[in-house]
Fold:
Amino acid sequence: QVELVESGGGSVQTGGSLRLSCRVTRIMTSRYCVSWFRQAPGKEREGVASMDSDGGTDYADSVKGRFTITKDNAESILYLQMSRLKPDDTAMYYCAARDDGYHWCLRGNMMDYWGKGTLVSISS
Structure:
């Protein structure tokens, strides 16, 4: 069973930065992806950024140029560096993984495992 544990959420002002972390354990397959999703109150869940087992990345248009996804393979930690944050970035952020392929990794219904989330709040 893959386990995902997020950390690093908090409150910052508009224009600030935060780095989220997700410890990923027990991915045993060779083709997988790990992704960040977010859900704001009253809004649908949105795929934010993903990284596949080949190191390929994908981003939602809303965060391109501001967010960067990276992975420390030695420590099995997925990061989401967020900069130039806006109030619209306020949401619960979730780490998710898919271990049966590495396509469509910004689609929540394609992911197999989820963390419990970490809250990000951006004030204006």
Remarks:
- The two ends are 40 Å apart (CA to CA).
- The chain has a mean pLDDT of 94.
- The chain has no helices and eleven strands.
- The longest strand covers residues 18-25.
